[in-house]
Structure formats: C-alpha cells, structure tokens
Amino acid sequence: MNAIISASDLANELTGAHPPVLLDVRWQLGGPNLRPEYEKAHIPGAVFVDLDAELAGPAGSGGRHPLPDTGAFGTAMRAAGVCADRAVVVYDGGLNWAAARAWWLLGWAGHPSVRVLDGGLAAWEGPLTAEIPKPAPGTFEPVPGALPLLEADGAAALARTGLLLDARAAERYRGDVEPIDPVGGHIPGAVSAPTTQNVAESGRFRSAAELADRFKGLGATADSEVGVYCGSGVSGAHQVLALAVAGIPAALYVGSWSEWSRDDGRPVATGPDPQ
Q1: Angle, nearest 10°, between helix axes 208-217 and 235-245?
Q2: Residue 221: enclosing H or E segment and its boundaries?
C-alpha cells in the first residue's frame, strides 16, 4: 500500500464502506500545543494525537523525542480508535513532519496500513468541523520491530559502511548554527539531505520518480543500506517516508542529533563534507 494518500482519495475513502481511522497530529517545534487549533476546525471524524505526549517519551539523555513507552503508546492509539484491521490516515498542519512521525511509529509498532495525507490539512478541500468525535475503543496492540530502528552505535557504523542521511537544514549539518541542541555539526560520515527537498512548492511530496532520482544522487538505491537521522526523530521520519515513496527502505535513528550531541564521547564533524 502507498505510504501517502491524496486529499481527493481520502475524501472518497471517508464516505466509503470502510473509512480509515483519521488522526490529526498537528504540532510545532518549541511552540504551544495545537489542540486548540484542532478544536476550532479539523477534518470530520479526526481524533487529535499529541506528538510530545503520545508519540514520544519524556525528553532526556535519549533525545528530545525518544520512543514512547510501548504500553502507553498502545493505550493512546486504542483511545483514538485505532485497530489493526482498519486502515489509518494521519495528517498535520502541512509540513507532514508530525504526521510522518505517527506514520513511522505506527508502522514500527506493527500496524499494517498507515498513510499520510499528502500536503496535510492545507491540501484538504472538504468541510471542516469543530465537533469532537468519540471513537469506539480500538483494539491495536503494538508489536515493536516491524520497521528498522537505529541506535547511536548503529548510526555511527552505518555512516561508514552504508549511507546515513542527515535530514536537518544544511546550515545545522555544517554546524554554522545550532538553535536547539548543545553542539553544532553532524555525525561523521553522514550525508546532508535536507527534508525540505522532498516536497514541491505546493507542500506535497515530489513524485516517486523525482524522489528516487534525488536519493540516487545521494547514494541511495533500493539495494542500499540506508539510515536517517534529524534533530529528534521527527523530520527524519519524513525522510524515511519520502524514501518509502521512492521505494527505498530506510532505518530511523530516533534519538538523532538531540541524543548524539548530549554525549561528550561522540565525535562531531563540521563543514559541508561528510568527513
């Protein structure tokens, strides 16, 4: 099944015999919780999911958005009506970073059918509502491990033996600026691949062929061993999603730079080259 879905196809599925569970994952880095925006207007039937509280564990040595407790994640998904035998569609305000995090986490936890609304809420042309749904309890039980996961040592090794992509902005990769984490730069051997280049001006993903060409230029093919990291495992999930659209499987280093840069024993490279 495709990893993304268009707004028109979603509209058709929502009126069909087997509509997907719809999750609203609007979120902004360092900003206030966007539940109030959800409560003002959302796609009918969508249930709000809080990225910081439900799609990540407490920030700490494992980074700003480490994996959530599996039991707590399962409880949150069942409360949102998620079942293993019913498709799920996730969306956010438009960047698709948060939606991709939900897509990746549900896929990693074993859900067989999760898609991201291409272009997010901005692409939706149907009605919006302020009515808060009350979904029937879901039955989804997470079984972690369905998607590949990297930890720090594995990311370091992959940067030397395969291809490790850094999804952050190029200036953060180079170490020119670091607005969030304690140290600027990148994991030695990682290749700069800003997430922003995965999408067109419309905010929608580039075509599968365009993405395949982009990643081929970075050294990634369907036969490559590919990993991705970012700041805290959110925009990196977007990169894994873009790779999936291109037909290239990839592992996610969830701790990402926010974990790596907190360990004084980890090497740091700066400048435009992988090193």
Answers
A1: 110
A2: none
Token pair for residue 156?
């370091």
pTM greater than 0.85? yes
DSSP state of 123: G
Q: Which residues are marked as active site?
A: 230
Tokens standing for residue 68: 């959530």
Facing residues of 22 across strands? 89
pLDDT of amino acid 221: 86
16 DSSP β-pair partners: none
Query: Which residues does 161 contact at the CB level (< 8 Å), separation at least 6?
Result: 225
The encoded tokens of residue 234 equal: 């959110």
The DSSP H or E segment spanning 219 is: none
d(CA 70, CA 150): 17
Separation of alpha carbons 149 and 152, rounded Å: 10
What DSSP string describes 12-77? HHHTSSSPPEEEE----TTS--SHHHHHH-B-TT-EE--HHHHSS---BTTBSSPPPPHHHHHHHH
> Residue 45 in contact with residue 132, Cβ under 8 Å?
no
Predicted local confidence at residue 255, as pLDDT: 98
**Gap between the Cα atoms of 267 and 229, Å rounded:** 15
Give the pLDDT band (50/70/90) at residue 95: confident
Q: Which of 78, 93, 102, 77 is nearest to 43 (CA)?
A: 93
Residue 145: pLDDT band with limits 50, 70, 90: very high
Helices (DSSP H) in the chain: which residue ranges?
A: 7-14, 35-40, 51-54, 70-79, 97-108, 152-161, 170-174, 208-217, 235-245, 256-260
